[in-house]
Amino acid sequence: MLIEGYDDGPLTAGEPLLDRPGFWANHLPVMCSDGDCAERPDPERFGGEGADADALSEVLFDPGHRPVFRVPAATGPGAVVVYRNLAGDYGTDYLLTDPDGSGPRRIARWDADFAGTGLTWRELTGIADAPSSRAEAPEPAGPAEAPEPAEGVQDTASRLLLLLPLLTDPDVPEEAPARVATALTQAGAPVRTASATANHLLAHLTRRSRHDPAWASPLSGS
User: Fold this and answer.
1) 147: closest CA among 157, 158, 136, 160?
2) 3-class secondary structure for 22-74?
3) Which of 43, 146, 176, 189 has a CA-to-CA distance to 183 between 20 and 30 Å?
């Protein structure tokens, strides 16, 4: 796997990690790292146990690899999430892929804090809800063959949660918490705590965006 600008370490397909217990407990709590979180969500709120999160963190943050999660879209831009595992420079990079086929460009990064530009709720759900179509197999001369699956993350719940840290919108719609809670339960989070966890994450994101009202969306033409 090749992405321009990431030539100093092996990039590996990260999509198989999405189904492992502990993945979301590593990926999502970064949004609570703003210093105002008196009660950081327990790993169990995202499915699995603390031991699962610890075991998977060794894979996600292995300095010998950079897991890559591709979020291609059928229309408009897609996204790529890269775990940047460099000694002394650990973090997560978010890149957008343009429909014209040009290479991915980094728009944001999460280290201890968020840096870069983000997406509005409408832009975020627009990417999440537009998975690339599954490739169609050519007309077979013999027995019918199943079409090849499209690459990258196709599940809309996983797509939404992967890109949720990009949300920089002070005024999300009323349905946003329910949408995030549903995605969490589909990803394995307990139903009884999904709503509270969704509200907790969104509160951090919307509070952050109000701290920086001058942000410009990378999809707005700015």
Assistant:
1) 136
2) CHHHHHCHHHHCCCCCCCCCCHHHHCCCHHHHHHHHHHHCCCCCEEEEEECEC
3) 146
